[in-house]
């Protein structure tokens, strides 16, 4: 058996970490800009919400789905990308860190709005909506990473099996090439000494008989 020499390990890919961290920083800045803007009327949230509600009601959404319900849903949706990107940026077993950071960040926003921004007010429902959205994004990220990890493991196991199978086939082929094939019965009959046994007697061949 030939010796196997291992060289230096291949470098790890940090593309996921860098891309997720960059997008997380950009989106966090966007969330802070939207939630910490001193004068919300300048962002025209009310006009946008009215147009969205009219479109939803036109497509059959019940009238009881009002501005408060839309705001709660929007707060959920705003934190879904945040939880998703945080789940990608953290290590695979660091999901519990995101589970702490997401409600903490939502609470920080609401406390800051209530204490430092006169034109805004903080509510526990906003914290709950943001936390729900962040957890949904985190769950999506963890599920996607688990599926990718399982796929990679299957690909690696299949590659190892195919290499082992190719090695076994090559070894069997090499063994067949170096071992002479036994001669058939006709060739053995014509060989000298076939009809003379060790005691000078002709060997006896047992022929298979079927009843």
Automatic annotation (TrEMBL):
Domain VanZ-like: 25-144
Transmembrane segments: 17-37, 72-90, 95-115, 127-148
A Pfam family: VanZ
Keyword annotations of the record: Membrane, Transmembrane, Transmembrane helix
InterPro entries per UniProt: VanZ-like
The protein, known as: VanZ-like domain-containing protein
UniProt organism field: Microbacterium marinilacus
Upper taxonomic lineage: Bacteria, Bacillati, Actinomycetota, Actinomycetes, Micrococcales
